[in-house]
Design a protein that fits this description.
Chain A is of the alpha+beta class. Chain A is about 45% helix and about 20% strand. The N and C termini of chain B lie far apart (about 85 Å). The chains are: A alpha+beta, B alpha+beta.
Chain lengths: ~200, ~150
């Protein structure tokens, strides 16, 4: 007894007819046709997926802006700010003229003593932040100054004499970051309090 | 023949095997494309910076270049960069600095959130003509800041 072929649903009938048409035109076997269609479908999915990921990244890409320039300050104002935060500053010496190595427009040396910790700092002022950066770079190449921890804050450099206790160095770095940088870069962590 | 006797029966690839091969190829292509994308972005940033453009990045990941001098130091016959700035929303290890001569890691500048990128351009000559034109600081997820370099002779 001859069995009846199963009834095809409309969608299945259309798909089967499409495959038969492809087989007739190309001369491919059923297996080859399924393989090619499957591969094409996979490629399409991968391309679409990659495209959607790329579009998603483009949509989420950060808008580009230019942040405000950091303010230029004088070394005198910087020292006054540290004093206003009750940093125990002593033995302040204004070096006139400033040392020839640093090529700064102003240079102040001072001590900070808290309990048993005592540190000596150099505060160097420049006309521009680029000049301050150039001095920091030159110091990193100098036999005499390459061991100095030097930090740049806009147009000012803060150099600690080697051996200065790290808590005091970090404290002053934190204060100057909070004063000269954090107000203009709101994403920075605010570990030190604002001047009151 | 003897060689026919020992020959194993050949079998064509199934659809599953084709899919596996295609999937692996796609993964390799996506990884390569991501790397090329970052490199392209860096090169476009360097070109834009060389043309005088400066921009920073914000929106979850932040990078800002505050000063970008190229310095020649006559006393030591050396030339290099000293680029400083700030970053947020990522780790310092996610950042790389680059100029037309190559890539280099970026270091913390004293406190977290502040970076310095100071590659040596020449360790034998103090010559500002050796300076690259621009600098790019790039996060590994694709955020980027670029700036033209200023020249400073000491």
């Amino acid at each position: 007894m001859k069995s009846r072929p199963p009834e095809l649903l409309p969608g299945e009938k259309r798909a089967t007819l499409t495959m038969i048409a492809i087989e007739d035109r190309t001369g491919w076997t059923r297996r080859q046709t399924i393989t090619v269609i499957g591969a094409a479908a996979l490629m399409l999915i991968i391309c679409l997926g990659s495209g959607l990921i790329a579009l998603g990244q483009a949509g989420a890409s950060q808008p580009t802006i230019t942040f405000a320039s950091l303010p230029a300050v004088s070394v005198a104002d910087t020292l006054a700010h540290l004093k206003s935060l009750n940093v125990p500053v002593s033995n302040v010496q204004t070096l006139t003229p400033p040392g020839t190595f640093w090529k700064a427009n102003a240079e102040i040396q001072f001590n900070v003593q808290r309990d048993k910790d005592k540190a000596t700092f150099l505060l160097l002022g420049y006309d521009t932040a680029s000049q301050a950066g150039a001095a920091a770079f030159a110091a990193s190449l100098s036999e005499k100054y390459k061991t100095y921890p030097i930090r740049q804050f806009s147009n000012v450099l803060l150099a600690a004499i080697p051996g200065s206790p790290a808590p005091l160095v970090n404290e002053l770095n934190g204060h100057l970051t909070q004063w000269l940088i954090a107000p203009y870069r709101l994403y920075l962590p605010t570990s030190t309090p604002h001047a009151s | 023949m003897c060689s026919d006797f020992y020959r194993k029966p050949q079998r064509a690839q199934s659809l599953g095997e084709y899919a596996l091969i295609l999937g692996l190829v796609a993964i390799v292509v996506i990884v390569i494309a991501f790397g090329i994308g970052l490199a392209d972005q860096r090169i476009f940033g360097l070109v834009a910076g060389a043309l005088g453009a400066k921009h920073d990045t914000q929106g979850g990941h932040y990078i800002t270049i505050d000063s970008a001098p190229c310095i020649s130091v006559a006393a030591t016959h050396q030339t290099g960069l000293y680029v400083t700035g700030t970053y947020g929303g990522m780790d310092i290890s996610d950042l790389t600095g680059s100029n037309q001569f190559g890539l280099m890691v970026v270091e913390v500048n004293g406190t977290p959130g502040r970076f310095v990128y100071h590659p040596m351009i020449s360790s034998t000559a103090a010559d500002l003509s050796l300076c690259p034109r621009s600098v790019v600081i790039q996060g590994k997820e694709g955020s980027l800041a670029e700036a033209p370099l200023t020249l400073e002779a000491r």
